[in-house]
What we know:
Blueprint: H1 10-31, H2 39-57, H3 62-95, H4 98-109, H5 112-130, H6 133-150, H7 155-172, H8 177-186, H9 190-222, H10 229-238, H11 247-257, H12 262-280, H13 282-289, H14 295-308, E1 311-312, H15 318-323, E2 325-326, H16 333-351, H17 354-364, H18 369-386, H19 392-407, H20 412-426, H21 434-443, H22 447-450, H23 455-469
Antiparallel strand pairs: 1-2
Helix pairs in contact: 1-2, 1-17, 2-16, 3-6, 3-12, 3-14, 3-16, 4-6, 4-10, 5-6, 5-7, 5-9, 6-7, 6-21, 7-9, 8-19, 8-20, 9-20, 9-23, 11-12, 12-14, 13-14, 16-21, 17-18, 18-19, 18-20, 18-23, 19-20, 20-23
Amino acid sequence: MAENTRKPTLAEALIPITFLIVLLSINVTIFGDGALDGSNQIVLILSGALAAILSMRKGVSWLTLQSGILHSINSAMSSILILLLIGSLAGAWMISGIVPAMIYYGLKILNPTILLVAACIVSALVSMATGSSWTTIATVGLALIGIGKAMGVSEGIIAGAIISGAYFGDKMSPLSDTTNLAPAMAGTDLITHIKYMALTTTPTLIITLIIFLAIGFNYSSEGEIHNIDPILNALSSSFNINPWLFTVPVVVIVMIVRKVPAMPALLTGSVLGILWAVIFQPHIFHEISGVSNDVWKSTYIGGMKALYTEVSIVTGNEIVDELLTTSGMVGMLGTIWLILSAMVFGGIMDASGMLKRITEVIISMANSTGSLVASTAATCVFFNITASDQYLAIVIPGKMFEKIYRERGLAPENLSRTLEDSGTVTSVLIPWNTCGAAQSNVLGVATFSYLPYCFFNIISPFMTIFFAYAKIKIAKLKSKPNSELD
Length: 486
């Protein structure tokens, strides 16, 4: 039986959004970085409850809303499983000496002047090779954040450099799921999409690197550098540091490049990490397990703990001890809680028709090419905030705007580029988005701490809007040469 529902008004649709924003602002003011410990999750659930109450008053049944919630959660399940595996990977790579080796060699090669630029470039290259910003940040990103802390560089700045590079690579790699998803939603092909996207992405990256270089010179001139010799000594005395440790990251990268799915690749990396710990760092298991008279029991307990719970390696150096702490799978549970809460809110908003009502208004205000692209970008950011998932921030606006772009004579690569320039890269800037929550947890840096320094992510949507208003490289449909906008 069809439901007797009435379309929500714009004011009604904005009530849960306003409620969410106000309470989240209060949370950040009161709890600070601790807002992600649970209060933000409660706010998302309460906002979803408010949206449900308003919807049910309009005739939407609870079964419809529940179906929307389950569909939303189901869309995030792969991200949740990957998060758990990233937690185990971080623990395995820590006790095996892989991350300590990355930090050790990085401290010897890098300096604060070039660190930010190098972190951005290395993250970009790895992300392009793997097609995954998540894998990049969970592997080389962890090492780079450790190098930055050891050098006295603000964790927010180094995290911003890592994320900027990782999302450039994710955005431009043909192996990336979002890079394949955006052209599919817009109706163009992958190669055309990447070539067209490079027009806005390349200058954005250049500007980003220039900014990071300027910041690096500022660090160098101020002399805000820790003496790294004690750090190097603590690392080398606690771990067997050698180049063979890097074979595991190479294996994982090769697997992903050869299109092995992320979950099997990350699980393989975790298992190999434990195996390498057995081979190169057998003494670590005694420290973790507290068992010294039974090698097999010590190894089993230590390996398991590294995968599922918090593990700390004590070296006697306060800076190094802070770097050599991981939380395993259990450390990801708070983030998973946040993602589930966000999916509840996004699912209700979508099933109730409230999100659609808000976006209809946005589309109606787009009267030129520039305003259409700006509206698309704003819609992508809006869905990253409300639906809390970068895939939804690409899929829904892609479906919404595809027809209007064609009607106005614009080639679909205009839409696909805008979806990536705005939907993919801004997801990590939202604390309760799956990407923002995950990367904040993995790097151990609050979203609002790194957000001001994610220059690539911040500039990208403005760059694509600038190109549209300036009429730079705006492809037209060949079949509609007279459909150009003013």
